[in-house]
Amino acid sequence: MKKIIINSILIIAGLIMIFNVIFLSTYSNKPTGQASAQASISLLIEGSYCGDSACDSGETCSSCLGDCGSCAATTTTGGGGGGATTKSIKKDFSVEPILIKIVLKQGESFKTSIRIQNTEKTPQSFDISVSPSLKDILSISETSVTLQPDEEKVIYLNFISNNSTEPNVYTGNIEVKTPYKTKQVPVIATIKSEKILFDVSLDIPIDYKEVLAGEELVFQITLFNLGEKEKSDVELEYIVKNFQGELIVEQKETVTLENQVSFSRTIKLPKEIPSGDYVAIVQAKYQNSVGSSSVMFHVSEKESLKFVKNKYFFVILIVVVLLILIVFFLERQRKNLKTSLKKQSNQISRVNKKIKKEKIKTHETNKEGNKFQKQLSALEKAYSQGYIKKESYEKGRKKIMEKLRS
User: Fold this and answer.
1) Which are the contacts of 71, defined by CB distance < 8 A and separation ≥ 6?
2) Contact 223/284 with Cβ under 8 angstroms?
3) Domain covering 196-301, topology
4) Element (H or E) spanning 281, and its range?
5) CA-CA-CA-CA torsion sign (18, 23, 24, 26)
6) 3, 54, 128, 241: which has the fewest C-beta neighbours closer than 10 Å?
7) pLDDT in tens, 189-206
8) In this structure, are residues 236 and 253 in contact, taking their beta carbons and an 8 Å threshold?
9) CB-based contacts of 375, cutoff 8 Å, min separation 6
C-alpha cells in the first residue's frame, strides 16, 4: 500500500507541475486592473479579456458567455438527395468606448456618446438600454437602431444633474443587445455637491488593482481643505459597488483636517463576492459639502477555481484517476504474483525435504537388506560345509527372511 501511495503522489505531482506551467502562462497575461482618470471625463479602451464586456480577440459564445452572450440556435440546410449540414449562426458587432467615467457637480450636465458598428455582412437590429441605477441622471438619444453591413451609428448620452440630485457615485451599464449577442459599456458617474469645502482623491496601488474575494483592498487617499480656515472634522465613507449599482461593502470614519492629509486604509471584501469589475469609492462629507473620487478594480477567481472551470479539467481528472487505478492494479498484481511465488517456493521446499527423507530411508533400508543378505549367505555356507545342523539352519534362515520382508 505504501508503494501505491508513493507512485500515485509522484504521478499527480508531475501532472500538477505540467498543468501549473500551462495555466500560469495563460493567466499571467491577464490585465491587472484599470488606471484611474483625473480629467472630468475618461473614455478608456483597454486590452481585451473575457469579462471586459467586449466580444473580441477570438472570444466566442462558447468560450466567453459573459461578453459574447449565449450561442444562437443552429440552422439546417440541405440539398435534394444530399445529407443536411448544420451551421451555427454567429453575428458580431463593436461598441466603443468600453468604459465611460464622468465627474459633475450638482446642476451641471455633460454630453458624450458611444459608437456602434455592425461588423457583419447582413443587417442587424440593436436595442440600447440604461441600467435602472443610472436612469435618473442619464438619457440616451435612441433606444433602437438598425444598421446595414459595416454601418456605424453614434448614440448620444446626456448626463444631467440638478440641485436636488443626491451627490454620489453612480455605477451602471449601457447595454447594447441583438438577438444573438449582448455587450455592455460600464459607466461611473460621480456627482459632487455644488459647493465643495473638502475634496478627496483616491488611488489603488498597482498590486491591489486585481484581488481575490475575501482579501483586503488598499485605498490611498488624499484629503484637501478647499474652503475652511480652521481644523474641521470630515466624515469619510469607503464604498465598493458593482456595475449594477449595488452596494457591496461600506465603512465610515471621521478625520480631523486643517489643510491636506494623505493616508492609506484597507477594506475587506466579502468572501462570496463574484469575480468581475468593481468600483472603489471615497466620499468626503462636511455639512452640505460632498466630494468624491472613484477607481475601478477587478476581483479575480482563485487559480484553483479557474482550473476547475477550465474545459480540460474533467479530462485531466479522468486521466489522473485512470493512472491511479493502473498503479493500484499493477501493484495488486505484483503482490499476488509475489504471494504465489512464495507459496510455490514453500511447496518445492517441502517436496525437496520429503524426497531427501525418502532417499535417506531408502538408503538405510538397502543397507539393512544387504546386511541380512550377507547373514543369509554366511548361514547357507555354514550349513553346506557341515558346521551347523539342518534344524539350526532352518531356524536361522526363517529369522533372516522375516527381517528382510519387514
Assistant:
1) 60, 61, 62, 88, 90
2) yes
3) Immunoglobulin-like (2.60.40)
4) strand 276-286
5) positive
6) 3
7) 999 998 888 899 999 999
8) yes
9) 400
